[in-house]
Amino acid sequence: MKEFIKGANPYMPLWEHVPDGEPRVFEFNGEKRVYLYGSHDTLRTEYCGPDQVVWSAPVDDLTNWTCHGVCYTSTDGSILYAPDVVQKGDTFYLYAAEAKGSRIMLATSKNPAGPFTNPVKTELAFDPGILVDDDGRVYAYWGFCKQYCAELNDDMATIKKETLRENVIKHSITQWSPDDGMADEEDAFFEASSPRKVFGKYVLIYSKRYYTPRPKYGVYEDCNGFLSFKYSDTPLGDFKMGGDISFNGGELIPSGDGNSFMTYRWGNNHGSIMNVNGQWYVFYHRQTGTDEFSRQAMIECVDVAMDSKGKIFIGKISYKDGEPVASEPVEMTSQGAHLNGLDARKIISAGYAVHIYGGAKGGYNGGKGGAYIKPVYEKNDSVSSPIVDITSSLTVGFRYLQFGNNSPQSLSAKISALENLRVNVRLDEYKGKLVAAFQMNKGESFAKADLLCGITGKHALYFEFLSESKNVIAEFDTFTFD
């Protein structure tokens, strides 16, 4: 019996929807694990829900995640937005964003998995991010379309008024932003404050909202699909420009003029970086469905470096003579923590795609109202998230698969043919080498084809759907190599 891929990207089961994730490495009962605290998209018709769950993985295997269940429930049944959790001494502190982030409660536990109890109201506000410094002092960062930070008192809930600062990162221009003269195109703070300490520097990670076109990323509209950072020598000090770490718009296809096309529907982003067992990762989220109410937790390796002048670089870094000189967002992948690629001989859900492009209308997801990954909620680790509303000329891509040293012989796929169609399977690029193809008649739900050539090693893989019909032609569920 074939196994389903586990711990890919998204790395939680496909039925789970945990966005806004703040990763932390904690040691508890002699074991170091990565704990992921996020909001919880359970309402399905709006952001988040009234409870929060905790997932964790051993530091030496970020493909093996365990759910510890509900760790906190809103005190009044209101919706919980993005939380944060830190440790000081033997106590873990959860900053729970009740009432859609308008009321921040502080609850505590002696276990990083909770439950967190005895909530008290804090003086913090939207999207709190907390930093416990090496000397034990504690700093908080928060804000929506306007950024704030301050040092906390020993109660971990109230701020030292004399330390309060505003706009250490200038904000974006939106309908929610104050007209205070502190907007900036390059800084463009939107939300999702997350402080980290890197090489002795204070790094503030945040969701950036670009409000001018970014053709390099295929962005021509207001867009807050980026996780970005700035850094400072002091915790509340003057932050310097860093860069963009993550963009959830899928694979970027160069257009040949220095610009790109995105291949996945971007949406809001929230997360942070964490050093896990010597490797840095960025934890972020992506969208599924047709709105932003079924988001999923994602992970990518990132490079982190500091040059001889103390400048911090995070993301995909370029070096010259051994010195970091530039960085850009890391690519969005299907493999996540499977660093050698997904095992091509296991069952792979279409829900791991990071490229949904083309189709009847063209563009990412096949244009407005085009194809999308259908959210699933059945708590079965073998459940698949299918891609639905596929039209002719749509391509669906996975980055990356591992085929090993011996080539498989054939490819099988569960595809519901809603019209007569042909599926071309291509390697490395969405218009790349043809390695398999099959015809399907309307009403069929399974296809198998022999490979046209051998495939070994690590590769990206693309499915190209073609039909003479102008209607929706297929739903794509799973595939595997034999």
Model description:
With 482 residues, the chain is mainly beta. Helix content is 1%, strand content 45%. It is built from 1 helix and 36 strands. The chain has one helix at residues 98-101; strands at 22-28, 31-37, 51-58, 66-73, 81-88, 91-97, 103-109, 117-121, 129-132, 138-142, 148-151, 165-166, 189-198, 201-210, 223-232, 240-247, 252-254, 260-262, 272-276, 279-286, 296-301, 303-306, 312-320, 323-328, 342-343, 348-349, 355-357, 372-373, 387-390, 395-402, 410-417, 421-427, 433-440, 447-450, 458-466, 474-481. The strands form 9 sheets. Strands 25, 27, 30, 32, 33 and 35 form a 6-stranded mixed sheet that branches. Strands 26, 28, 29, 31, 34 and 36 form a 6-stranded antiparallel sheet that branches. Strand 5 and strand 6 form a beta hairpin. The longest helix has 4 residues, at 98-101. It is globular. The mean pLDDT is 96.
Detail the topology: elements first, then pairings.
Blueprint: E1 22-28, E2 31-37, E3 51-58, E4 66-73, E5 81-88, E6 91-97, H1 98-101, E7 103-109, E8 117-121, E9 129-132, E10 138-142, E11 148-151, E12 165-166, E13 189-198, E14 201-210, E15 223-232, E16 240-247, E17 252-254, E18 260-262, E19 272-276, E20 279-286, E21 296-301, E22 303-306, E23 312-320, E24 323-328, E25 342-343, E26 348-349, E27 355-357, E28 372-373, E29 387-390, E30 395-402, E31 410-417, E32 421-427, E33 433-440, E34 447-450, E35 458-466, E36 474-481
What's this model, at a glance?
The protein is an all-beta fold and about 475 residues long. About 0% of the residues lie in helices and about 45% in strands. The two termini are about 10 Å apart.
